[in-house]
Specification:
By secondary structure, the chain is an alpha/beta fold. The protein is 35% helix and 15% strand. The protein is built from 13 helices and 15 strands. The longest helix has 19 residues. It starts with 11 loop residues before the first strand and ends with a helix. It binds pyridoxal-5'-phosphate. Pyridoxal-5'-phosphate binds next to helix 3 and helix 4.
């Protein structure tokens, strides 16, 4: 069968925010307007905090105005010092959050299957200055949380996870926010669950709650006491209300994404040299945050960049995510751990990965089918 493949009329991007029904939002806003309580951890904030804790199956949650400030608060709350071992295969916010706490990021290579930090490489990166490991659950696939905890216990290190991609990911039914000392979630509009901008930290140790509340609210303890140099990272009532409505939409969105996943998979599985980046662990339920493929130029006959550029001819804007590596940023490239020889797997991955548009509404008008046909065409015919 010859399929005619045409250019999309409007540009198609990798993300599309899940947005609540405007009438429902209007009702919520009327409630907030009537109360005149629009900021400073009011009723919407409290309710969202409870609902997130329940949804993520965690013990404690503190909300923030974005994920980056949440990550910065995590390092501060755990009193980290010196060096933190992390991955170069992540978004800029991960290492930046360390530098803003006067910590030095030490880049550790990743494993070639799910592209998360490779525990087999962590021990050799540990020095007397190391205080923690900061892993990233890339594309919603979890790090090897068991091995990482073993290493942390052996060397007395803290563990922080960047779970910006992993809202709703579970391992054996256990919420991903239960591993390590603290886990950060981002609620940015591009993430599966969003409050337009927002974020959270989840943690087991209840004693951290007071400290996190001080950090995110100027260090103000009460009317007369300011006990530390905190910053301002409070999620406001309007954004909390958006979150309450979006949270009810997450499961439906995930179901739709599973269908998009299957449509793409059928095509990808039959392409030589193209593979879906996925966990091999059957106990994992993924968040379905991204659909990432790896293109092996030699086996496939096309480079990732060729495919990326060809897609644009069809008005489809895929993302080379994560490229460049954080270790190649101007602000990090001179670190000893940024040396190419230290990061061969991450280097190769950043040349081969491509994220395709991935959201529920691609099921409308055969959007997902069209994208998968374009993928096949640009790979097979060029
Ligand atoms: C989105 C993202 C962040 C930052 O979150 P913000 O809420 O935008 O500050 C951090 N890490 C990763 C891996 C992300 O994808």
């Amino acid at each position: 069968m010859q399929l005619s493949i045409t250019k999309f009329e409007k540009p198609v991007y990798v993300f599309e925010p899940v947005l609540p029904d405007l009438n429902q939002l209007h009702e919520k806003l009327s409630e907030i307007w009537a109360s005149k309580y629009v900021a400073n951890m009011g009723p919407q904030h409290r309710l969202l905090n409870e609902r997130i804790t329940e949804f993520l199956k965690v013990s404690n949650t503190t909300l923030f105005s974005n994920g980056t400030l949440a990550l910065m608060a995590a390092s501060r709350a755990l009193d980290l010092e010196g060096e933190v071992i992390t991955t170069p295969f992540t978004f800029a916010a991960t290492p930046h959050s360390l530098v803003w706490n006067n910590l030095t990021p030490v880049f550790c290579d990743i494993n070639p299957v799910d592209l998360t930090i490779n525990p087999a490489r962590i021990e050799e990166m540990i020095t007397p200055r190391t205080s923690a490991i900061m892993g990233v659950h890339v594309y919603g696939n979890p790090c090897d949380v068991v091995k990482i905890q073993e290493i942390a216990d052996k060397y007395n290190l803290k563990v922080i996870y960047d779970a910006a991609h992993a809202f709703g990911t579970t391992i054996d039914g256990i919420g991903i926010g239960n591993f390590g000392d603290m886990t950060m979630f981002s609620f940015h509009a591009t993430k599966l669950f969003n409050t337009i901008e927002g974020g959270a930290l989840c943690y087991k140790d209840e004693q951290l709650m007071d400290k996190l509340n001080l950090i995110k609210n100027f260090g103000i303890k009460n009317e007369e006491e300011v006990v530390m140099a905190g910053f301002n990272a409070k999620l406001n009532e309007v954004q909390s209300a958006v979150g309450l409505l979006v949270l009810d939409m997450v499961e439906e969105e995930q179901k739709k994404r599973m269908k998009v996943f299957d449509i793409y998979k059928e095509v990808v599985d039959r392409l030589d040299g193209v593979e879906i980046v996925n966990t091999s662990d059957e106990s994992v339920h993924s968040s379905y945050q991204y659909f990432a493929i790896r293109i092996d130029a030699e086996r496939c006959g096309r480079t990732r960049d060729e495919v990326y550029h060809k897609f644009k001819n069809y008005n489809v804007f895929t993302r080379r995510y994560f490229y460049p590596l954080c270790s190649d940023f101007e602000c990090y490239r001179d670190l000893p751990s940024s040396a190419v020889a230290n990061l061969p797997v991450a280097k190769q991955a950043s040349k081969e990965v491509l994220c395709l548009p991935f959201y529920g509404s691609l099921l409308e008008n055969n959007g997902a089918e069209s994208i998968s046909h374009i993928l096949r065409k640009v790979i097979v015919d060029g």
